[in-house]
Design a protein that fits this description.
The strands form 3 sheets. The chain has a 9-stranded mixed β-sheet with strand order 1-9-2-8-7-3-6-5-4, with helices on both faces. A 7-stranded mixed β-sheet has the order 10-16-13-12-11-14-15. The longest helix is centred in the first third of the chain and has 15 residues. It contains 13 helices and 18 strands. By secondary structure, it is an alpha/beta fold.
C-alpha cells in the first residue's frame, strides 16, 4: 500500500503512469504489485518490464518481484512456470510477465504487449521508449529517481493521458526505522536531499557547459565576427545538425538551423539553399565524412573538414568554454543538449571525458570553434542570420 502520494491531478486510469520518486519510496515495488495483480486477474496478457540492462534489472525490479511473490504464499501459487533464460513468469491466467532490455531502437521494434513498465526510465533512450510504447496495447508505467530533467519531463509530464505521482520515503509505511534514519541523515546535502530525499527534480551535476545563456534573437547584437557554420553528419540513429555561429563583444552567439534524422546529402544541400547559406560562407564539418563533404562542395558550397587530432574533443570543448555562449531560445534541441551533456562518471567521480550522448549540436559547435576560434580568420561584419 502506498499512502499520501502527491497527485498531478485527480486519479484515473490513464494511458501512461509516471512514478517520480526518491530513494526507498516504494515506486518500483508498488508498480510491480499492480502488474502482478493484472497478471493474476486478466487472461492471456503480455506484461513487459524493461530496464537499462539485465544486471540492473536483476539487482532491482527482478529482485523486488521475487520478494513480493516469495513473501506471499497465495501469490506464488498463481505462477505455474518460470523460464530463467528469458526471465519470463507464466501465470495460471495465461498471462506472462517478462523482464528484458533493448540495446537499440531497431531492437525495440520486435514484439508487442498489453502492459509496459519502464524501470529507471532515465537510463533508457527516448527512441527506444517510443518504439515500445506504440507497441503497447493498454498502459505504460514508468519510474525513476529525478536526478535531472530528461525526456519524460520534455515529452510526457503534463500531457493528456499521463498521470504523475511524486513520492518519497515518507510514503512508504513499511520502511524500517534504521533506513529512515539513514535517509534523513543526508538532509545536510541539499542536492542529494532534494532528489533522493524528497523526490524533487534535480539539476544536472557535472555539466560540460555551464557558460550558456538562452536569449531571444531580438537581443542578439546586429553584427558579428568569425561567422560560420558547424555541420555534424547523421542519418538513422543520430541527427544531422547545422548550427550558425558568430562572435560579438567577446561572446558566442548561435542558432540551430537543422536537426533531423534520415537526411541525405541532397537534403542537406536543399536546406542550405533554403536557409540562405551563400557560396562564400564557411561551413566546417566532421572530417570523418570526406565523401559527404566533397559531394556538398561540388554543389558550390565552401565546406571544409574540421581539424581532428589527439584530444580534439577536449580541445574544442576548451575553446568553447572560454566564451559565454548565447543560444537562440528557439534552438530546442541545442538547449536540451546543453542541459544534458555531462562528464562521464567513474568510481563516483567525474572524469575528463564527456558522455557520448546529447552531443550532436555540441559536436557541430566544436567543428566551428576549432577552425574559427583557434586560428586567425578574416573578420566579417554582418548579421548572423543570413535569411534575415
Amino acid at each position: 500500500p502506498i499512502k499520501n502520494y502527491q497527485f498531478s491531478k485527480p486519479f484515473r486510469c490513464e494511458r501512461s503512469i509516471i512514478n517520480q520518486g526518491g530513494t526507498s519510496s516504494g515506486k518500483t515495488y508498488a508498480i510491480l504489485q499492480v502488474l502482478i495483480f493484472k497478471a493474476i486477474t486478466e487472461h492471456r496478457k503480455v506484461i513487459t518490464v524493461v530496464g537499462q540492462d539485465i544486471p540492473n534489472l536483476k539487482r532491482g525490479a527482478i529482485r523486488d518481484f521475487q520478494t513480493i511473490v516469495s513473501d506471499n504464499e497465495i501469490l506464488s501459487k498463481f505462477i505455474i512456470k518460470y523460464n530463467p533464460v528469458d526471465r519470463i513468469y507464466t501465470f495460471s491466467s495465461g498471462s506472462i510477465i517478462e523482464f528484458t532490455s533493448y540495446s537499440s531502437e531497431q531492437d525495440a521494434k520486435s514484439g508487442k504487449r498489453d502492459y509496459l513498465f519502464i524501470n529507471e526510465a532515465n537510463g533508457i533512450r527516448f527512441e527506444i521508449f517510443q518504439q515500445l510504447k506504440i507497441r503497447t496495447r493498454f498502459q505504460t508505467f514508468l519510474d525513476y529517481n529525478p536526478s535531472a530533467k530528461f525526456w519524460v519531463h520534455d515529452y510526457l509530464i503534463h500531457k493528456e493521458g499521463v498521470q504523475l505521482f511524486i513520492s518519497n520515503y515518507k510514503h512508504n509505511p513499511f520502511l524500517p526505522p534504521e533506513m529512515i534514519q539513514n535517509i534523513e541523515s543526508m538532509k545536510g546535502n541539499k542536492t542529494w536531499w532534494e532528489v533522493y530525499g524528497l523526490g524533487k527534480t534535480g539539476k544536472v551535476e557535472g555539466l560540460v557547459f555551464y557558460n550558456v545563456n538562452i536569449i531571444k534573437e531580438s537581443n542578439f547584437p546586429t553584427t558579428f565576427k568569425k561567422i560560420g557554420y558547424g555541420l555534424d553528419f547523421g542519418f538513422t540513429n543520430d541527427p544531422t545538425v547545422l548550427l550558425e555561429l558568430g562572435v560579438a563583444h567577446g561572446e558566442i552567439y548561435g542558432r540551430e538551423i537543422i536537426y533531423a534524422k534520415g537526411m541525405t546529402n541532397q537534403d542537406i544541400v536543399r536546406e542550405l539553399k533554403t536557409y540562405g547559406v551563400s557560396m562564400q560562407d564557411l561551413i566546417y564539418a566532421d572530417a570523418a565524412e570526406p565523401k559527404s563533404i566533397e559531394e556538398i562542395r561540388r554543389h558550390g558550397f565552401r565546406i571544409r573538414a574540421a581539424r581532428k587530432g589527439r584530444d580534439s574533443i577536449l580541445h574544442g570543448i576548451n575553446l568553447l568554454k572560454q566564451y559565454t555562449i548565447n543560444i537562440d531560445h528557439n534552438s530546442r534541441h541545442w538547449i536540451e543538449e546543453s542541459e544534458r551533456y555531462i562528464w562521464q562518471i567513474k568510481n563516483g567521480r567525474s572524469i575528463n571525458k564527456p558522455i557520448d550522448n546529447y552531443n550532436h549540436c555540441w559536436d557541430a559547435a566544436r567543428y566551428w570553434a576549432v577552425m574559427m576560434l583557434g586560428e586567425h580568420v578574416p573578420i566579417q561584419n554582418r548579421r548572423i542570420y543570413s535569411s534575415n
